[in-house]
């Protein structure tokens, strides 16, 4: 089976690093046209330039997903450049507040994690789906997490934000399927990215538990594997798929 997403018009948030970077690479390899939204401009622009040198069609926009004006302006500009939007993959996110007790939890950490992970997902879907509704088709992937659906998060704010993203994807699935738009949330396990490594290092530094750190570190899976799953979910071959997708 050949999974052909060539010429698809794709917006990828969080594309400068980790899972998002691997998603950008696999879509680029397969000749999709890509708009990256991120705030890590150095790595995002470097990735864009490197892939464009070998014939890819990628443009980078500095978009802070928690800012309504930046999201609406970015989506309008990207839609014009792409000439439509077939796929939104929303991976922008942060994990802060790992292993901090509730009584000491800083309110500003709560606000920034909820702002980027949950409000950012809402704003991206809100602005992109208005174009997809007009086209009567589209695929939207949101980054939820076992941390918000199954439990066991290291951070009160992170687990809560990801539970919210899961809830948002359920509402979106319900409302947008009538318009030909397929919505999924993906729940990656523990993936070897800067975010996950920074969280397990913080937890190790707070708890002093080296053994647990080494055990988790050994079990991290490669982001390329998650990117391949996302690539498949976005294809027509996956059109019968519904709802949340869990991975290692
Ligand atoms: N790595 C894991 O184990 C894991 C597990 C479950 C879920 N996830 C989720 O997958 C997604 C990708 O995570 P990752 O591990 O690749 O992390 P990462 O830190 O490597 O990448 C996250 C990207 O989001 C960008 N970003 C952060 N704040 C932003 C903002 N305000 N606006 C726009 N972009 C912003 C960062 O600059 C970065 O490029 C996240 O939503 C994360 O919560 C990751």
Description of the molecule:
It is a single chain. This protein has 248 residues and is an alpha/beta fold. The chain has a single domain (9-189, 223-246), classed as Rossmann fold (3-Layer(aba) Sandwich), CATH 3.40.50.720. The protein has nine helices and seven strands, in the order E-H-E-H-E-H-E-H-E-H-H-E-H-H-H-E. The protein has helices at residues 18-29, 41-53, 68-82, 107-135, 146-149, 156-176, 194-207, 210-219, 223-233; strands at 9-13, 33-38, 57-62, 87-90, 138-143, 181-187, 245-246. The protein has a seven-stranded parallel beta sheet with strand order 3-2-1-4-5-6-7, with helices on both faces. Helix 1 packs across helix 9, helix 3 runs parallel beside helix 4 and helix 4 packs parallel to helix 6. The protein starts with 8 loop residues before the first strand and ends with a strand. The mean pLDDT is 98. Nicotinamide-adenine-dinucleotide (NAD) is lined by residues 13-14, 16-20, 37-40, 63-66, 91-94, 116, 143, 145, 188, 190-191, 193-196.
């Amino acid at each position: 089976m050949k999974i052909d997403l060539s010429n698809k018009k794709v917006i990828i948030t969080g594309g400068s690093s980790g899972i998002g970077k691997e998603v950008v690479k696999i879509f680029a390899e397969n000749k999709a046209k890509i708009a990256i939204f991120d705030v890590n401009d150095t790595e995002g622009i470097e990735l864009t330039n490197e892939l464009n040198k070998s014939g890819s069609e990628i443009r980078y926009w500095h978009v802070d997903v928690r800012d309504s004006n930046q999201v609406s302006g970015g989506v309008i500009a990207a839609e014009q450049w792409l000439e439509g939007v077939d796929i939104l993959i929303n991976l922008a996110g942060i994990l802060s507040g790992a292993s901090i007790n509730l009584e000491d939890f800083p309110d500003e950490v709560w606000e920034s994690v909820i702002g980027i992970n949950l409000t950012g997902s809402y704003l991206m879907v809100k602005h992109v789906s208005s174009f997809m509704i007009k086209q009567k088709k589209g695929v939207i992937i949101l980054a939820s997490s076992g941390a918000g659906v199954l439990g066991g998060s290291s951070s009160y704010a992170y687990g809560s934000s990801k539970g919210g993203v899961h809830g948002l994807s359920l509402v979106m699935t319900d409302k947008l399927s009538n318009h030909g738009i397929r919505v999924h949330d993906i729940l990656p396990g523990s993936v070897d990215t800067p975010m996950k490594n920074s969280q397990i290092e913080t937890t190790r530094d707070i708890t002093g538990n080296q053994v647990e750190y080494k055990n988790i570190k050994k079990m991290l899976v490669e982001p390329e594997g998650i990117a391949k799953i996302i690539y498949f979910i976005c294809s027509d071959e996956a059109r019968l798929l519904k709802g949340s997708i869990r991975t290692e």
